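Okay, any thoughts on this one?
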Amino acid sequence: MAANGNGRVSTTNGDTGRNGLAKIQTQKSANGVCHDDSTTPVKAQTIDELHSLQKKKSAPTTPINPMQGSFAAVSEDERRKQQLQSISASLASLTRETGPKVVRGDPARPTSEPARVVAHHVSPTITASDSALKFTHVLYNLSPAELYEQAIKYEKGSFITSSGALATLSGAKTGRSPKDKRVVRDETTEDDLWWGKGSPNIEMDEHTFLVNRERAVDYLNSLDKVFVNDQFLNWDPENRIKVRIVSARAYHSLFMHNMCIRPTPQELENFGTPDFTIYNAGQFPCNRYTHYMTSSTSIDLNLARREMVILGTQYAGEMKKGLFSVMHYLMPKRQILSLHSGCNMGKDGDVALFFGLSGTGKTTLSTDHNRYLIGDDEHCWSDNGVSNIEGGCYAKCIDLSREKEPDIWNAIKFGTVLENVVFDEHTREVDYSDKSVTENTRAAYPIEYIPNAKIPCVASHPKNVILLACDAFGVLPPVSKLTLAQTMYHFISGYTALVAGTEEGIKEPQATFSACFGAAFIMLHPTKYAAMLAAKMQNHGATGWLVNTGWSGGSYGSGSRIKLAYTRKIIDAIHSGSLLKANYKKTEVFGFEIPTEVEGVPLEILEPSNTWSDKKAYNETLLKLAGLFKNNFEGFVAHKIGKDDKLTDEILAAGPIF
C-alpha cells in the first residue's frame, strides 16, 4: 500500500475490473495531513465570465475639480456621451452632414458594458449610405499595452523585439513625401503664408481639400474600428494646443501616443473639442484625377478648418511634421517663436538652443549627461521661456550602438515604436546596421525614457543660441562667436554640406541651405522667424555661436572630421561661459570672431587656414563656399527683417565679403 497525500492507495488481489486491470481501493487516513492544493472554486460560471474577472475596471481617476465649459457638472455617463458625440462630429461627412454611429470598444471583444451608440447629425437629411447603417467602434486613447495587442493581432509586420519595443513597417513609403504636401490657399493664408519660389508650401484649393477629406472620412467610417488619440502639443500650459488624431492602425496610434504630450485622466475627461484634427487614412490612396494631385499620396493642410488629411502614405513621420508645420503657423500669431532645434539646460538653469540640419550633431550635442534635456527637435520660445512642443523623441536608428548612443539604446524598450528595422526571426534581436528595408530606420519613444529629461519640458530663456554646420568644405572654424546680425544671417541661410554618393563618382561636397534650419516645415517667410529670434535674443541677452562639426585640414576626401571630443569641449566652454571671456581674432571673408584658445582643443585647428598644407587650395575653397552663401541669400535681400531698418541692413552686410 502506498501513501498518497492524506490517504492510501492499494490494489486488490485477484479482483479485476472489466478491462482486466486490478481494481484500485482508496482509504482515507484517520489523522492524515492534507496536502491538497485545491482552493475555493472561482465565482465564474462560464469561461467568458472568468475572462471578465481577469481585467478590473480602471480605478477612479484623479479627483474631479469644478470644471468650466461644456463638461462642467455632468455625470460620468453624460461625459462619455459628449465625448462620443465629439468623435462622431469629427468623423462627420460634410455632404451627408452626419457622423457615424460610434461606440467605444473593440468589435472583436464582447463587453459586459451596454453599448452606448452616439451619432452626430447637423441637420435632418434625406441622403443615406451603407456606412450610416453600421457602427464605427472607437478605440479611444488606448494604453501602449492595448495598442501592442491590436498591432500584434491585426497588423501584419508587427512584432515584439527582444528589447520589448514594437517593430512595425510603414509600407511603401519609408520617409516623408514633401512633393505631395499641400496647403489650402484661401483668404486666411493668402497674405500670411510664404508662397512661391523656395517655399515648401504647395497650394491647393478648398474644394480639392474637401474632396480628399471626404475620401479619408469615408474610408475611416468603412472600417470596423478606428483609433482616436486626444493629446496636446506644447508643454507651456498657457499655449498648448489640443489635437485629435483619427487613424486606422495601432502603429500610428502608438506613435502619436509617444510623440504628443499625454493628457492626465482628468485632462482627458475635460478635453472637449480639439483645436486641430488629423485624419490619417494613409492605407487608402487619393484619387489621382483630383485636381492638384501628382501621385497616389497626398498630405493636405487646411489651416482655416484646422484639419489635416493623409492619403496614400503610412509613414508616421507625416503626422509629426504636419503638426510641426501647424505650430509654425499658430504660434507666431501669438508672438511665440517656433523653432526646429534641440534644447538643454544646465544644473544652474542656463539654457542652450541647438540648430542644425541632419547629420550636424544636433541630437548628439543636445543630449548631454551633465545637463537636463528639454527636447531634441521642436520648441517654442515665448515670454515664459522655452518649451518643448512634443512629448517624445523620434531618433534615427541606423548603425545605432550602445556605446555611441547609450540613452537612445536604453530608450528602445516596451512602449517604443521601431520603424522599418530588421531583426533576427528567432531571437528578435534588431540589427541596426541592416538597411534592407530603408536607411531611415527610426525609434519613437516618450521623452521620459531619457533619464535626464526635465519633466515638465520647460525652461527659462536661452543664454546661448548654437548654430551647427557640418562643413565638408573644411574652411569654417570649429567655433565662431557671432554678432546678432551674423546669427540672423546664418539662421536664415541654414547651411550644412553633404557628401555626394560615391556611386556618382563625385568627390566634392555639396552645399545645402535650408532656411531657419527647417525650411520643409516653416509656413511664414523665413525673415519673419528671424525677426522674432533677433528680438528675443536682444531682449534676453542671448549669444549666438556657429560651431562646425565637419571637416578640418582639407575638404572631405583630403581633410579629417573634427573629433567629437573637441566639439564637446567647445560646447562645454560655451555652457560654462568661459568661451565668452576668451580672446578673439577676426577671420577674412566671413568676418568670424574666433577664439585664440579653448581648453582641451588643439590651438592649430581653431584657425582653419593653419590646418591646410595647400594654402592656395584653402583660399579657393573658402571663396567658393562664400559664393554659394551669397547666391543663396539673394532670395532674401528684398525682404525687410522686422521693423528695424538698421538691423536689416546689418544682416545683409553680415555675409561674406570678397
About this structure: The two ends are 109 Å apart (CA to CA). The first helix runs from residue 47 to 54. The CA atoms of residues 597 and 603 lie 6 Å apart. Confidence is low (pLDDT under 50) at residues 59-67, 122-127, 500-506.
